[in-house]
Design goal:
The chain has 273 residues and is an alpha+beta fold. It has helices spanning 12-20, 37-46, 60-67, 88-94, 108-116, 216-219, 266-272, and strands spanning 30-36, 48-51, 75-81, 101-107, 120-127, 132-141, 146-150, 152-154, 159-161, 167-168, 184-186, 194-200, 210-213, 223-226, 247-250. β9 and β10 form a beta hairpin.
Amino acid sequence: MNIKRFNEITETSDLITFLQEMQRLNNVKAFNKYMRLSSVIRLLSTGVLLINNPKRMNDLYEYKAFSNQVDWSKICFCSFITQSTESMAMWSMYAQPWDEGVLLSFPAADFKQMVKNTHFLISAEYDEKNDAYNLGKDTIPCDGLLHMTRVAYSTGTTITCTNRDDRNYHFPNPYTFPELAGYIKDSAWDYEKETRLRVDLPASYQSDAAFIKIPDSLLSQITIVTGPRFEGNVLTTIPTRFKARIKIEPSKFKEKIAWIPCDTCECKKHNKK
């Protein structure tokens, strides 16, 4: 397929094709997620990763910008950071609280191969009481519905593609194109260098999220980087079968963050009492 240069794209269909092209990820070595250690333990214990619904994510600007035109209930994704170096902004935003924060890193080539070989997802059932999803009993055929896709960032006059310098002036207001929902974020988030594992769920599927099975062969290759102010021991908490296989290393900023607002938080002092 002959794909246009990014700055020459004028049609939304061509933009989506461009963002979904696997060659956009050729230089990416790892897909990273900043998170709590408890979330990593859940992943290792269950062997499944949630592909969540945008209404439960932190960027409600993107969600609300399309909400009058789009049924978000069938558009779900799991976000990864392709930035190769640690980001203090990401530690602060996603790996909270500080003493539980870690960076989970998947080898990109093996993760992409897993996605390519995945033909079924597992249904997700929302548990309102615990505000969490549980594994359902149904499988969901996902051939042609599951993609790794780059994100384009909008400045209000131009869009840029993750990790690229060229600009496209043909979509000054991309939020007027409902088909671009899930592919566009405001440039305030461009430091994330985001890639998404996206699924467009079939209309017949009742829930608004799904799980993807991650084989032990891939989970065994992950790296866990403990945060700058992490407390505890990862080895004592991960399942036994992974203890000798998963790489664990400290943040390069360990013990180099002298003070954070939480240190003098009145609420934290009160809770300690």
